[in-house]
């Protein structure tokens, strides 16, 4: 945060209040450079507008408030999803919403506040997807996915990949939510809604793409190889709480931000043969 993000947020404050030209170009970037990619990756969260209400000297305190608000909003949207999707209320909603808002991924990324917006919008995307499958309504899905792609394209494309995997695996296993529509109809409607979201967010995605072509990614080595990046057996150790230290940050095994209970549930789903195949396969 102190090494990079604070300077960007200070630039955000100065640009919107004093120098709008800084949205496209800034001489403060090395010897001068394009700023559109920086804005689309770091600074598009609507909550950043709170920065404008305070002097730049109070920036650390404002960022703390924004981080806390993002934690709260992620729990709120998770609770909304649980109530709408499963028609449950009271303590289960509070418990699961609090667990979602305070999960390991959120704690690990408390200083990467730009990514936390994904945890806020993800439940809304899945509620919109559920509505698309159950009723054919695409409005909620399009609005939420478009918002995610605009606010942070980096997390947005990861969510898009996850949505694709969800639709493919759960559709193939006939495990999608109950719907009066055929799987082909659902798939085509989902593809259409996803494309609309891509078009609506193209005004920021396309310039960002060209901005990235002139950044350090232009000097990255493009190479495709099929191999294990990490030892699969070592990955299993990451399901144990606390299996992380700072030395692993640059070159350690990838972190898995789910609880150990996932391993237990996976074993149960494999061993208990009375469970339907349509339930075990997506798991």
Structure notes:
This protein has 283 residues and is mostly helical. It folds into two domains: 61-220, no CATH class; 229-283, no CATH class. The chain is built from 14 helices and two strands. It has helices at residues 5-17, 36-42, 59-86, 91-101, 104-108, 113-135, 139-151, 153-172, 183-200, 202-213, 232-236, 248-251, 261-271, 277-280, and strands at residues 25-26, 33-34. The protein has a two-stranded antiparallel sheet. Strand 1 and strand 2 form a beta hairpin. Helix 3 (59-86) crosses helix 4 (91-101) and helix 6 (113-135) runs antiparallel to helix 7. It is globular. The chain starts with a helix and ends with a helix. The relative contact order is 0.08. The chain crosses the membrane at residues 49-69, 90-108, 114-133, 154-173, 193-213, 256-276. Keywords: Membrane, Transmembrane, Transmembrane helix. InterPro entries: Uncharacterised_YfhO. Pfam families: YfhO (PF09586).
Task: Based on the model shown, name its key terms.
283 residues, mainly alpha, two-stranded antiparallel sheet, globular
């Amino acid at each position: 945060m102190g090494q990079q993000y604070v300077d960007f947020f200070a630039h955000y404050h100065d640009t919107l209040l004093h120098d709008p030209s800084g949205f496209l170009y800034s001489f403060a970037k090395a010897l001068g450079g394009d700023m559109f990619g920086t804005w689309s990756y770091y600074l598009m969260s609507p909550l950043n507008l709170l920065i404008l209400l305070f002097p730049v000297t109070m920036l650390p305190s404002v960022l703390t408030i924004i981080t806390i608000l993002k934690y709260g909003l992620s729990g709120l949207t998770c609770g909304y999803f649980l109530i709408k999707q499963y028609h449950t209320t009271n303590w289960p909603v509070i418990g699961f919403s609090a667990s979602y808002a305070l999960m390991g991924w959120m704690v690990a990324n408390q200083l990467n506040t730009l990514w936390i917006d994904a945890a806020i919008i993800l439940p809304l995307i899945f509620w919109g997807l559920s509505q698309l499958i159950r009723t054919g309504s695409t409005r909620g899905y399009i609005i939420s996915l478009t918002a995610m792609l605009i606010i942070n394209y980096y997390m947005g494309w990861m969510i898009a990949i996850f949505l694709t995997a969800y639709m493919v695996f759960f559709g193939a296993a006939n495990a999608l939510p109950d719907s009066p529509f055929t799987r082909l109809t659902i798939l085509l409607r989902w593809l259409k809604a996803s494309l609309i979201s891509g078009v609506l967010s193209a005004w920021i995605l396309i310039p960002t793409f060209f901005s990235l072509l002139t950044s350090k990614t232009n000097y990255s080595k493009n190479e495709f190889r099929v191999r294990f990046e990490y030892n699969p057996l070592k990955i299993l150790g990451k399901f144990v709480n606390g299996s992380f230290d700072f030395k692993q940050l640059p070159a350690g095994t990838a972190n898995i931000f789910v609880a150990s209970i996932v391993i237990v549930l996976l074993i149960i789903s494999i061993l208990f043969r009375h469970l339907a195949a349509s339930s075990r396969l997506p798991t």
